[in-house]
Amino acid sequence: MRxxxxxxxxxxxxxPPRSRWTPREAELLAITLRLLQQHGYExxxxxxxxxxxxxxxxxxxxRWPTKGDLVVAAFIEGTRVFAIAPRxxxxxxxxxxxxxQVCRDAREHASTVRAVLTEISRNPAMNAAIQDEFVRPRKxxxxxxxxxxxxxxxxxxxxxxxxxxxxxxxxxxxxALVPGDPPTVEAVRMLVxxxxxxxxxxxxxxxxxxxxxxxxx
Length: 217
What we know:
The protein has nine helices and no strands. The chain has two domains: 55 residues, Arc Repressor Mutant, subunit A (Orthogonal Bundle); 134 residues, Tetracycline Repressor, domain 2.
């Protein structure tokens, strides 16, 4: 089971994450991202980025020593989101809201993800960076939702596992990557109501049923 994150204090809303890059660096990364979406990883060249940005290859390489470093930085900068776990007070409603956000996020960044998929599979450093900076922050949102549901008594800790955790974002992202078959609101609802909620609340329902039978006896 994935270790749950500590629920942050909610005294004040957190500030949006700031870019780590200077305005000029951010401009170079934006150009890289656009060319990456147009030409894919193999078709992207540092020379093309430098030419488009009216810079020199030496300047680009000084900041990002390899094309892989440049692409990772562009990917992460271009897919940065200001994500806060929903706080509806209901696990089902929280999951529905997260599913809707995943759909929007996946559709917006589908072309970028497609452009790097092949390279991720053969570039361990790129895969590690994207897992750490793109996937992990989004997973922490689900951690917070499930932890809140446990504290409210909606679910039991024992039912939380990586397979169930990954089902919602992984499936919706996959659907977004398939041309002509984007995820829908109905797909989110079916995943939540027919798969996740039954699986996550199975122990709670069993305990309630046992208590009811005992009361009848």
